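Quick one:
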Amino acid sequence: MFVLISIDLEGCAGVVHVDQTRRGGGDYERARAWMSREANAAALGAFDAGATRVVVNDSHADMRNLLFEELDPRVEVISGALKPLSMVQGMDAGQPAAAFFVGYHGGAGLRASVLDHTYYGAVVGEIRLRPASGAADDPGLWVDEAAINALVLGEAGVPVALVTGDEAVTAHASERFPGVTTVAVKSSITRYSARSIHPDEACRRIRAAAGEALRGLARVRPYTLPPPIDVAFSLLTTAYADAAELVPGVVRLDARRVSYVAPTAREVLRAVLAITKIAGTVVV
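Output:
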């Protein structure tokens, strides 16, 4: 049984500030160790429940954060950025029975979620999805990284069985992903503060929950939305919208909003990556 683990950093126990998440930051080395240990805990839980293959995809920033020496020697690791499938790279390396999202955080615009952002925090204010065939005045569904990534997996029939992070992201996951198991390792107070459990306790709970999630896989269902999907981006400045409008197929909605109609969930992700990367070129 193949399990794909997508591991981020902002949602790990103890992490509350950008200084902990950026290479060169004063607490980065400690935080990346916590991240590596949480990824390993999820992998160990998967092996405990009968997984025969576990692929861990480093999904934070430059995607070169995991400390290999902190990981079980049975795991495979995907590292390095500019991946076609970004945070769910590895799903095409055989059909995963399930995916785990570990260390995930709230999406851009979510109140009381540590370091909330969606793919590119300096650019994106909010992303919403709605059926392209729906009413024009439908505001759409607010989405975070977990929802976008789950849609790509769900389109391929892969369910998200485990989500760990702060209480905000796990609450949204419980509402959206049928049968998902969650572990909240901290309760966010503001964007830069939280009440966290100890990293050792976080790893203990994650390992137990990973095993539980895999053993209960029969109750889990893939997360899907009917295509085509209209993706609406609220960007933080007009300059970012100016740049995003250069992407073929992008429609300008107003000063700071653009949209794109994607025929598949995978193309939703490609649009998010393309628009945020090109808009990011004008960040000053």
